[in-house]
Write a structure and sequence with these properties.
Chain lengths: 384, 128
Amino acid sequence: MSGRRNGIAVAGTGLAALGHAGSRSEQDIIAQAAHTAVRASGLRMSDIDGLITASLTSPWWVMRMAEYLGIRPSFSDSTMFGGSSFIAALEIAQLAIAAGRCENVLICYGATPRSAPSSSQINRMRAELDPQHYEHPYKPFNPVTSYALATARHMHEYGTTREQLAEVAVSARRWAQLNSDAFARDSLTIDDVLAAPMISDPLTVRDCCLVTDGAGAFVVTSSERAADLCPAPVDVLGVGHAHWHRQISSMPDLTVTPAVDSGRRAFATAGLRPADIDIVELYDAFTITPILFLEDLGFCAKGEGGAFVEGGRTGPGGSLPMNTNGGGLSFTHPGMYSIFLVIEAVTQLRGQAGDRQVDGARTALVHGNGGVLSSEATAILGVS
Amino acid sequence: MYDIRNEASSTGADHRYRAFLAEGEFRIPRCAECGRAHFYPRVVCPFCDSTSLEWVLASGLGHVYSTTVVRGRSAAYNVALVDLEEGPRMMTRIDGLAPESVTIGMPVRARILADDEPLIVFVPEQPR
């Protein structure tokens, strides 16, 4: 699979400040993760000539991070695709590397919503900077409310149950219990999820991802170069990205996401089908999201996602290992999560996942979600 | 019938929508070329990119596409998506019943809440 024309590969990865950052700033923890990723790639920061990052708060983020890291990239991108940004970044990096604009692209993200929560003033400012005049007057508690509306519609059309949603959270927790880096590792049952405080019906707090600190980074370069740089590069076999709307009220069908487009593009480029995929890392912002993505990416038919996740199928020992680090529901979730999907897939494909290692994993599908089912980015990774 | 072409092009879609609401009228833009209504209001049709848009009176009738109850600190309240009879969908709130009693498919009728900023909410409509 390696060495394909215009192919890129993930070299080193890095994590920092999972859970609680102490007194470290967002830039501190991103720099720590970036430093680890660059060194693990057999590179120095001065070798980085491409930088892709994004922030939930600062529109100047790529300039701030380049400044902090002391690099002068010949290619940069900081497009905000919400939580899908760092898988969409793979497509951008691939184009930039193929065009000869840069060689070694650092993709990084981090945030500290747990140690330094946004003030109500900042939350108000965010709403003003991204005005949604036709939604905000009704006071949706977003993003939860938008996902709750999608969940309610899926339940209505397909009979999906709250127990099936809870299976997603329980499966994630069972993976987290095998991952010493995971934030939430205590026992969690389906009944616990059902009995947890309701946030926006039918989603309880246990149907919602964590709010933690954390940073992640990885370096991508051409497949040829990656093979020279590090012992176990992971090839990016296909990428797809699609977005259809920003606000939930503008989503045409709340049970069908742009993942149908992003997934089709990624599979077509990779020349693979869902049956060829060993593990999946699907952004679990809420328990409904992996159910929707399993359907839209073709792992099961539309409407069958709830039944698909029953009986521990996606948990440890199940036939389709999903969110093997514990996911956004139990591993970590600093505002945007997709950087961690890539890092976990790379860790698994290298056979370095310790107690949670899926034996013989050669292909992984990672899928990032941004906004309110707004932006969907899919990548298929593999080792030869 | 209101025709946006007769208005100064410097009037924004949001502004016009709210001005109608303030006059007690729930109007939405409809494309004079493709015939489809859209919401939220724009100055270019999102279906056929025509700029020939008419502001038509909405019937106010629709049905609930999805619904949730936001469990706020002080109170629980409804947030819903309603599909208008004319086609477009909008976020709104269903008043006149307990927030958890709102059901998908429920027929509803629009009401203008006159406040500082007039707002469309819906109430249950008896099926005809």
